[in-house]
Amino acid sequence: METIQIGMLGLGTVGSGVLQMIQHNEDKVVNVTGRQLNVKRVLVNHPERHQDVAENIELTTSVEDVINDDEIQIVLELIGGIHPAKEYIEAALRNHKNVVTANKDLLATYGPELVKLAHDHHCDLMYEASVAGGIPILRTITNSFAADKITEVKGIVNGTTNYILTQMSQQGWSYDQALKAAQQLGFAEADPTNDVTGKDAAYKMVILSQFAFGTQLAVDDFAVTGIDHLNGFDVQQAGKFGYVIKLVGIAQVIDDGVFVEVAPTLVPADHPLATINNEYNAVMVTGEAVGDTLFYGPGAGGLPTANSVLSDIISVTKNLVLKTNGNFFNNYQRQYIPAAPRDVVYPYFLSIMMPDVPGQMLKLTQIMTEIDASFSQITQTEADGLAHVVIITHEMTAQQLADFKARVAKDSSINLGAAYKVLK
Ligand SMILES: NC(=O)C1=CN([C@@H]2O[C@H](COP(=O)(O)OP(=O)(O)OC[C@H]3O[C@@H](n4cnc5c(N)ncnc54)[C@H](OP(=O)(O)O)[C@@H]3O)[C@@H](O)[C@H]2O)C=CC1
Ligand SMILES: N[C@@H](CC=O)C(=O)O
Predict the structure, then answer these.
(1) Candidates 167, 187, 204, 227: which one to mutate for ligand 2, based on the most atoms within 8 Å of Cβ?
(2) Counting C-beta atoms within 10 Å of the first and last residue's C-beta, which end of the chain has fewer, N or C?
(3) Where, by residue number, does L-homoserine bind (predicted)?
């Protein structure tokens, strides 16, 4: 039987999971593809840390050993980050290697040029694992929503932050304690900054939007807020109002435009997204014909992510058998037009500090009246001469919110701490 030789770049959390799956699931792979898979060579930074790797696998610190090996037909890029991963993938594609990667940073930033390079060289470039770890969401959107018009994709697409929020609210852990555990469990990026600032989720929303709407966004095209400034008091107050705060990514078609945002968001306690805990992710895809659908699973971790990588390897292998490599993973393309702020409508959670003196509340009410918005729920707590006012508004537009912020900014006695969307 013919053997497909694989070269790996990286043998960390995901790479180790991939190796384990290839070694343990040989029979099924042979049954499904008619080919054996063999990992021939692996690029790492620190070979001394990987001495337990199987004897027949060569470790190397030189990328040329992988990308210039004529026997290797599939290169797995699992080192992460933009450089040198981009140059390694480009070199592999130029050498006519099919590439599988889990790298959302790279695909969200340089997706179109890498996709073109792969196509020009008749190679596959697949990246199912780049969004929501173990949830097979990209292939599902491409294949199973091929004819339906998707109107919204929203969800929890970062495992680390969901793990942190869950541990803080359910176990009473500190932010630092929860982040450290997420790193030890292999959920966080090598540098967790992108996880906690929302950028990792934003990369995933760029890729999801491309698959769902055909738009080519950049992370700078939309607002991204992480959980690094989330305040324990706001989490508690949201809970008292019947909401859970989650880091939610939303991409929603509004008229001809698309609204995209990543931000801490109040989710009603009985909403499906409110029940997604720990490193689990969930993506809700709404289609005009099908209505709401929900895809749930582990969003981070070695073996779950490896399963998505393996699904790409199997697809590439089937293409090698049929000699059909070089088709686009997703070829839907449409121009991106940002939705107008006056068309983006949500209730908002506003957390405000101000002096506990007569007249302050009236000022706040006047500002709301000026922007033609209103409160649906409000609480006030006092401490040390300060009033902490927490409001849930009725539905208002993103434009009204911007006007509210601008007016409050002019009044030094009113300090707006947080303004989060409330999911409908
Ligand atoms: N962890 C997860 O749950 C998920 C991760 N991903 C993505 O998968 C990719 C891999 O992540 P993960 O496995 O967690 O990362 P790790 O940090 O655990 O592993 C990275 C691996 O790449 C090697 N490496 C890094 N830089 C270089 C370099 N310049 N040259 C050679 N080798 C290098 C490291 O070598 P050494 O071991 O010798 O130091 C290590 O083996 C990333 O793109 C990540 O975003 C996607 C979904 C989930
Ligand atoms: N750091 C990421 C890993 C998967 O993409 C996350 O926590 O979701």
Answers:
(1) 187
(2) N
(3) 189
Residues 6+ apart with CB under 8 A from 329: 115, 124, 125, 126, 127, 138, 142
Ligand nearest to the CA of 280: 2
pLDDT at 383: 85
Cβ(158) – ligand 2 distance below 6 Å: yes
pLDDT score of 47: 97
Largest alpha-carbon pair distance within the chain?
A: 84
For ligand 1, atom 44, the nearest C-alpha belongs to: 80
* 3-133+302-322 under CATH 3.40.720.10, yes or no: no
C-alpha to C-alpha distance for 314 and 131, rounded to whole angstroms: 18
| 3-state secondary structure at position 267 | strand
Atom of ligand 1 nearest to the CA of 15: 13
pLDDT higher than threshold 90 for residue 175: yes
Contact 160, 168 (CB under 8 A): no
Closest CA to 283 of 347, 211, 380: 211
Residue nearest atom 43 in ligand 1 by C-alpha distance: 80
- Over residues 248-274, the mean pLDDT reads 97
The ligand minimizing its distance to the Cα of 59 is 1
* Residues contacting ligand 1 via CB (< 6 Å): 10-15, 43-46, 49, 78-80, 84, 102-103, 129, 133, 186-187, 189-190, 300-301, 305
The region, left, alpha or beta by phi > 0 then psi within -120 to 50, assigned to residue 390 is beta
- How far is ligand 1, taken at its centre, from the CA of residue 150, in Å? 33
What is the Cα–Cα distance from 258 to 273, expressed in whole angstroms?
Answer: 21
Q: Which sequence positions are flagged as catalytic?
A: 204
The pair of structure tokens assigned to 245 is 């705060």
Residue ranges of domains in the chain? 3-133+302-322, 137-298, 343-421
Nearest atom (ligand 1) to Cα of 308 = 47
Counting from 1 in the atom list of ligand 2, the atom nearest the Cα of 160 is 7
Mutate to test the pocket of ligand 1, among 42, 61, 78 (most ligand atoms within 8 A of CB): 78
In which residue are the tokens 């997703």 written?
330
- Assign domain 137-298 to a CATH class: alpha beta
What architecture is domain 343-421?
A: 2-Layer Sandwich (3.30)
**The residue count for the chain:** 424
Q: pLDDT digits over 330-362, tens only? A: 999 999 999 999 999 999 999 999 999 999 999
